[in-house]
Design brief:
The chain is built from 7 helices and no strands. It has helices at 3-15, 18-29, 31-60, 66-105, 115-137, 149-217, 234-252. The termini are far apart.
Length: 254
């Protein structure tokens, strides 16, 4: 069996699984939400894996001094947690403001009152009527009939919903990747990492102080030391010199 056949069977088994079938059905029923949640999951998952790798690398990086290594690791951990939390928060927060922003930006195309729809529907119907009149004047059969306003309203609402869904996805990604990761996280992560590092240092200092007190309370061991030869009394030195001197004189006495 070739690689292509093995890979096709593997991918086919995944697509036929129940979880994948549920995901496909959800995409069919509500594509806008499915795309939004899939995008958010990929962004948060990528940052979670990156956070783990950065923290592990910082803790084991011998090029970083020992007194700075914990701060760098705390900085990476704080960045990772803030990135994931802020992206989720900004993503869902912006979903509540997307439609009002869309209405303000595109009020000339899609307004709440429906004035723009009336204008568009009138223009479309007029164009269709002019086409029918021109076809009759030329002795040809009229092509399409004049569309009724309810049918145009359905098409107009469907187009508006598609535009809003695309706008939401773009704005949500911009809010999660630019506002959250590039503006909010760098502004908050540095002081928060310093705060966490100070707390860890204080805790380690308290543990070291407790260990020092425990060592001070233990009785000190007294080691017996041999007295050096220099502590011999002067009288004994003189006596030894005299004895040696007398012995030397005896050698030269006949």
């Amino acid at each position: 069996m070739g690689i292509s056949s093995i890979s096709s069977k593997f991918v086919g088994s995944i697509t036929k699984s129940k979880p994948m079938q549920k995901c496909c059905n959800y995409f069919k029923k509500n594509p806008e939400k499915a795309i939004a949640y899939a995008t958010l999951t990929s962004l948060v998952g990528k940052d979670g894996i990156g956070c783990y790798l950065y923290v592990t690398q910082s803790l084991n990086n011998k090029r970083i001094p020992d007194d700075k290594r914990r701060f760098v690791a705390a900085m990476d951990l704080t960045n990772g947690i803030l990135m994931m939390a802020s992206q989720i928060a900004f993503f869902f927060a912006m979903r509540k403001f997307n439609e009002p922003i869309f209405n303000k930006l595109f009020q000339k195309s899609f307004d709440k009152e429906g004035k723009m729809f009336k204008t568009v529907a009138t223009q479309i119907r007029k164009t269709q009527k002019d086409a029918q009149i021109a076809a009759q004047a030329a002795g040809k059969e009229a092509g399409h009939s004049v569309t009724r306003k309810p049918e145009l309203k359905e098409e107009y609402d469907a187009l508006r919903g598609t535009c809003i869904a695309a706008f939401k996805n773009v704005v949500n990604i911009v809010a999660a990747t630019i506002l959250a990761k590039r503006v909010f996280v760098p502004f908050v992560s540095t002081p928060l990492a310093q705060y966490c590092t100070n707390k860890v240092d204080q805790r380690n200092a308290k543990k070291a102080a407790k260990n020092g007190q425990a060592n001070d309370q233990q009785p000190a061991k007294v080691e017996a030391k041999n007295e050096p030869t220099q502590n011999v009394k002067p009288e004994t030195k003189i006596e030894t010199l005299k004895s040696e001197e007398s012995n030397l004189l005896k050698k030269f006495q006949k």
